[in-house]
Design brief:
With 338 residues, the chain is of the alpha/beta class. Helices cover 39% and strands 19% of the residues. Helix 2 (62-77) links the parallel strand 1 and strand 2 (81-85). The protein is globular, with a radius of gyration of 29 Å.
Length: 338
């Protein structure tokens, strides 16, 4: 009898122990799904579930820096995924987009017009009709940078070694335009074809005398260069700027202030607009999301150029038709781009 009682008691203890184990396991099982909550996989609110690649510029230029900030912000705050990649300049960006490599790209406003019309650097290959304008974001200054204080005017570039941009960039034609208004040609200088970063390195090493850098100031390549010595920007005088504007109205007069690069004085130059363009086959909803996110949240974009974002300016470059997604957003803001 005693043995039977002990056996029953042991059985009861075993049952109680098994129940206890089951109760402790239950919460662990129910907490697992909570740690893998589907909300972590859900895109942020707004926009279509699409992925776009945004070709910018060299890694020491404003295109790449600002483009990366824009891409990260749009991706983090909408359903639209945008990836910024470095590029080889405006002309190359248009050609690569036309070939289907990218959906979005940065492009100088003048080069954008050349591509659409099949003129200047696109005269031989012909017009490109696979893209539309999205928005003008900021002004790109034609900066003629040097570390030689004796180079004070464009005429002082005669016979000098001068970088006029990477192959495939729009900088070449900016150099041609500026030299032309001083009755000079590329033959009057010793041209070198380098990216912004390589131009800065060559200036620092004394391998070239000056460089044309067309980008939003302050430009990383020039800012970095200024840490190694005094930099100067060559100024254009009013007479020759007026001559240039008469021949090429897509330029605007612009002053780069001395404090931009720690220069002895302000530099007067010209500028073109930095445009975002898109392939025509990108959906209207995707471009609408891209544009609206940028302009509705300009104060959240962590880059100095965000302060220049302006709806009137963004929609003002009409030499190329705007993408339907961009036109839709501007129309909502009361801007009819035709």
């Amino acid at each position: 009898m005693k043995k039977k009682f002990v056996a029953v008691l042991l059985a009861l203890c075993l049952v109680l122990a098994l129940c206890a184990c089951g109760e402790s396991a239950a919460p662990a099982a129910s907490s697992a799904p909570a740690s893998d909550a589907p909300a972590s996989d859900a895109p942020a609110a707004g926009g279509p579930n699409e992925s776009l690649t945004f070709v910018t510029g060299g890694e020491t230029g404003t295109y790449y820096a600002f483009g990366s900030v824009i891409a990260q912000y749009v991706s983090a705050n909408t359903n639209l995924s945008v990836t910024a990649v470095s590029g080889n300049g405006s002309k190359a960006n248009v050609e690569d987009m036309d070939a289907g490599s990218y959906e979005l790209g940065f492009c100088q406003s003048d080069v954008m017009s050349y591509a659409h019309d099949g003129t200047n650097i696109f005269a031989e290959t012909g017009a490109v009709d696979s893209f539309s304008a999205v928005a003008a974001l900021y002004m790109e200054q034609v900066q003629i940078v040097t570390m030689n204080p004796d180079i004070k005017t464009v005429e002082d570039l005669r016979g000098k070694s001068v970088s006029i941009g990477a192959q495939g960039s729009g900088v070449y034609f900016n150099a041609v335009d500026v030299l032309g208004c001083y009755d000079m040609t590329i033959e009057d200088i010793s041209p070198v074809y380098q990216s912004f970063g390589d131009s800065a390195d060559s200036l620092k090493d004394g391998k070239i005398d000056a460089a044309f850098i067309v980008a939003g100031a302050p430009t990383t390549a020039i800012t970095d260069l200024s840490t190694s010595g005094q930099v100067y920007l060559v100024s254009l005088d009013d007479e020759h700027i007026d001559k240039l504007l008469a021949a090429s109205p897509y330029y605007s007069k612009y002053t780069v202030t001395a404090d931009t690069y720690g220069m002895p004085e302000d530099a007067q130059t010209v500028a073109v607009a930095a445009m975002v363009i898109a392939r025509n086959d990108v959906s209207e909803d995707a471009i609408y999301t891209f544009v609206s996110t940028i302009f509705e949240n300009a104060d959240q974009l962590q880059h100095g150029k965000a302060a220049e974002l302006n709806l009137e300016f963004a929609s003002s470059i009409t030499s190329v038709p705007y993408h339907p997604g961009a036109a839709r957003y501007f129309a909502e803001k009361g801007i009819d781009i035709g």
